[in-house]
Design brief:
Layout (H helix, E strand, L loop, with lengths): L2 H16 L21 H12 L13 H14 L9 H10 L3 H15 L4 H15 L8 H5 L6 H5 L8 H11 L10 E3 L7 H4 L3 E5 L2 E4 L1
Antiparallel strand pairs: 1-3, 2-3
Helix pairs in contact: 1-9, 5-6, 5-9, 6-9
């Protein structure tokens, strides 16, 4: 399956299940954006703001008044200069707390592979653990690195990661991105019925959700 077809499938799931549309991918150095601008970078900006719940309008690649208000809210929340303009510091802050479509797909595959059949809370908790690792210096600093770190996740090792996620998995990812962390800051989780590693049992346990114990 080509990358283009995979991306189209993700877009279809997001559009139907979450009311989202596909932004154009953005390079690392994005230009300053302000009201009146149009194009792919605006799509990316809108998508990231929508992930956080700041932007509720359809994604259209046009930086209008609603987009500006969403930037205001994000800047205020992050303690940035509130000017409605998406400059370097605003992009930097956005990229620390939001993800590309490809990263969202990776997270949804992880959730589905690791936690399908668990409660919705349990699925959000699995996504939150991956995000918590991303922001911890002991783990890779990008989502691909976190998920594919050797022996990090059973679903990657046994191939379940490569199954197509359902809408519930994508929804769990978006709840985790918006800040819900049922794991309460956990960096690890395991199923006590099948865990054979003495090391994982040595971790400080936080709570149990469904079949998983969450720990740090």
């Amino acid at each position: 399956m080509t990358h283009q077809i995979k991306t189209m499938i993700v877009v279809a799931i997001l559009t139907v299940g979450l009311g989202l549309t596909m932004p154009t991918q953005v390079a690392e150095a994005a230009p300053e954006l302000k009201e009146g601008d149009v194009g792919g970078y605006v799509w990316d900006l809108q998508h990231r703001l929508q992930q956080l719940g700041h932007y509720q309008e359809p994604l259209d690649g046009k930086f209008g008044p609603h987009n500006k208000e969403a930037v205001y809210r994000f800047q205020h929340q992050q303690g940035l200069v509130v000017d409605g303009v998406t400059g370097f510091r605003t992009w930097q802050a956005l990229r620390q707390v939001t993800f590309t479509v490809e990263e969202i797909e990776m997270l949804a595959k992880l959730v589905y592979g690791e936690a399908r059949g668990e409660t919705f809370e349990g699925q959000v908790a699995v996504a939150a653990v991956a995000i918590n690792r991303l922001h911890d210096d002991r783990f890779p600093n990008n989502m691909r690195g976190v998920i594919f770190e050797p022996r990090a996740f059973t679903a990657v090792d046994d191939g379940q990661y490569y199954q197509a996620p359902d809408k519930e998995a994508y929804r769990a990812v978006y709840y985790a991105i918006r800040g819900w962390d049922p794991s309460e800051g956990a960096l690890f989780y395991f199923n006590p019925d099948v865990a054979t590693s003495s090391w994982i049992w040595s971790r400080d346990q936080i709570k149990t959700i469904g079949k998983h114990i969450f720990a740090v």
